[in-house]
Amino acid sequence: MNNTFENAVTPEIWCERLRSQGADISARALRAKARACGHYYALGRAMLLSPEHVETILSVEGAQTRKGGRATKVWAHG
C-alpha cells in the first residue's frame, strides 16, 4: 500500500492528536474545513485526512486569521 494512505486517518483521530497539542477542534469542524478547501480522501461516506491535508487545512486557517476574514485560495497541491 502507498505510504500516503498508511498515514491517513479519520478526523476524529486528528482531533485527538491536535487536542494533545493544545488545539481544541471538533471532528465536525475539521471535516467542514477539509471540504471547504478540498483537501481530503473520501471512501463512500468516510473521510480520511493525511498529515499533508491537515497541514494545508491549518495553513488556510492561518491565512484566514491573518487576513481577518476569508482566505484566498493560496494553497497548492503538491
Number of helices: 4
Tell me the number of structural domains.
1
- Helical content stands at 40-55%
Q: How many strand units?
A: 2
Instruction: Give me the Rg, rounded.
Output: 13 Å
Provide the structure class: mainly alpha
The general outline is globular
- Main sheet, how many strands, which sense, barrel? 2 strands, antiparallel
Strand order of the largest sheet: 1-2
Mean pLDDT: 83
Distance between the termini: 20 Å
The percent range for strand residues is 5-15%
What is the string of helix and strand elements?
Answer: HHHEEH
Uncertain ranges: 71-78
Assembly classification: single chain
What would you note in describing this structure?
The longest helix has 17 residues, at 51-67. The chain has one domain. It has a two-stranded antiparallel ribbon with strand order 1-2. Helices cover 54% and strands 8% of the residues. It has helices spanning 3-6, 11-20, 27-37, 51-67, and strands at residues 41-43, 46-48. Helix 2 (11-20) packs across helix 3 (27-37) and helix 3 (27-37) packs across helix 4. The protein is globular, with a radius of gyration of 13 Å. The chain is mainly alpha-helical and 78 residues long. Mean pLDDT is 83; it is low at 71-78. It has four helices and two strands.
